Give the backbone structure.
Amino acid sequence: MVRVLRAGEVAPDSYAWAIHAQGLSVRAGRKLAVDGMDLCLNAGVHGLLGPNGAGKTTLVRALATVLRPASGSLELLGQRVNGRLDLRAQRRQIGYLPQEFGFYPRFTVREFVGYLAWLKEVPKRDVPGAVQRAIERVGLADQADDRMKTLSGGMVRRAGIAQAIVNDPRILLLDEPTVGLDPDQRMHLRALLRELASDTCVIVSTHLVEDVVAACTDVMLLDAGRLAFRGTPADLVAAGGESGLGDSPAERGYSILLRQYRSTEVHR
Amino acid sequence: MIGLELRRSQAPWTAGVIMGLGTIGYFGGANLGGGWAELAWQQRAGLGALWALACGLGASQARRERRRRLEELMASTALPRHRRVLPTAVAMGLAGLAGYFGLFVVGAVHLVGEDRYFPPGVVPTILIGALALVAALWVGLAIGSRLGSPLIPPLLTVAGFAVIFVFPAYVLGTRHGADPGGALLLYPTLSQTNGMRTDFVTLTGQAQLVQLVWLTAVAGSGLILFAVKGLRGIVASAVPALAGLAVALTLVPQSFSAAYAVDRGAVEPVCTPDPPVVCVTRVHADDLARVLEPVRRALAVLTAKLGADAPVVALEDYENSLRENLPPQPSNAVVFAVFDTPADELTLQVLYGVGTRPCPGTYDKDHTTARLVAAAWLLGIDPPSDMDKYSDVGRARQVLEHLRGLPPDEQRARILALRRAELDCAPGNRLEVLAG
């Protein structure tokens, strides 16, 4: 599909890191759910793994500018976001699929994705094309004019991904994107993520270790608000070895790395 | 985006509910047979329920993001809140206008094509009614977006009902016919003042202005409170409401009845070209043919019974439509009121009090009985017992019998004396005028 590139898309980045956090702490309620995290991320697919309550969703929400950091610094696309009131410039470049993705049931897929494009300040003349492209990329072209309420769970999830990518974001945050997708759709999504990874900083929070191994360029393992491990999927698989708990090397790697981290934390 | 909101928000619903319930109100509440002024009046008097409901509908729409769990996603988007919610507010506002104007069209169907007097005051009255609905919807949006509970829309509707119906009736005393003061104009509904006939009166320009200023201010405050988040929005929204209130209060008339004036266009006389002349008001021009015969019969009875002293002209009376500052009645004319009275009763009614209107403040039984006796004497009948619950029919028979026992000249003199006293609104007991 041919489209006109905007000047901003071909201009060189003026920042070193798409996401740069130093000592980032974020509260979820009273609890410090993200506790002094350092992150430097650029284009690629970054998998976020960790047990329930590790702070994955809180981190993603902070990166989506929904939550304000409690302390530390957070730079998105070279601009500090904590303390700033006007986040419009960064928000235009963010795509976000929340864990709990709500939608207006009476809107059609096209209307809903178009509505989000408007909210993300996609220039008016680009909206129809951007919407069509986003819907095609998630494989919902045939359902584009169906009401949201008629979609199956997997289709709703894909519509959620379509709205997240409709503005060609530089930072794409997907919280549990594979929930409700069948194996075929998950493969399709992974392919899409790999395609986006060339120029987008994609963060995928998930419970599914397999997804991370299959689609991610690197893995971050979170535990109790801290970064327990960071490496490539190959490192994760290697850590797992041939035997132990879990059905695959990657799953074994996940639980071994988590246990190792917890024991060193206790000693400290 | 406004198009999308018009299609997909609760806006079409809202317009439908306003129009549907309003139409039910028309048919349930009163006749649809009146003129333009009555239609406008009815639409404003019946606005209360719709107004309260509009508050709730607005609040319900405002909860959409929360109800659909979209707040999280919205919080990450670039467009500022005021721009995001503006299409919603506009769509809901348009829904309010469409519903209210639609309701007007439903009520006006039977008037289209008829050559009825169209009072100019109808236009602002309807426009202000529509504005009131827009204000209610926007206030509802504001409150619904600020207070998240799902109970807010129904509670707001109930509160709206209380504000509209309970406060003026029970606190300001309108249910006893008390004049609540001009500040009642701040209400979106219009209340009737004692004895007012809606087809003869119109809101004064000043009263319309009070409502326009105030309701515009309320709508503006609602919009700001909805669109601007945080404390800043609360503070900013207070400004138009307080400013509007201040301006409106400097403009309100002393009493509520002073908010109304006789509509000079409506009461212009429309008369028969040939004598005996019978005139009705322009707003009742259609009724002239219907009332002509019984009214002329009354004039004929007067001439037959009173001779040269009899009034020879009949005028429809509108002066008592506000019951204040009544000008004197012309001594050569009888006055009558046009209602749906059957022809035979109308003759009798014209002859009540020898063709005079009752004087203000003279509603005691002796007074009305005397007026009945005069009519019965003129028609040569017994006082009809089922006509008038304000008269003492037994006493009327007594006085009539006594009167008929007097010499004919004396009888006539006493009847004329009664007419004189009624024309002048002289003090004294009218029954004594007849009974001696």
Chain A touches chain B through 29 residues (CB under 8 Å). The mean pLDDT of chain A is 91. Residues 27 and 33 of chain A are 5 Å apart (CA to CA).
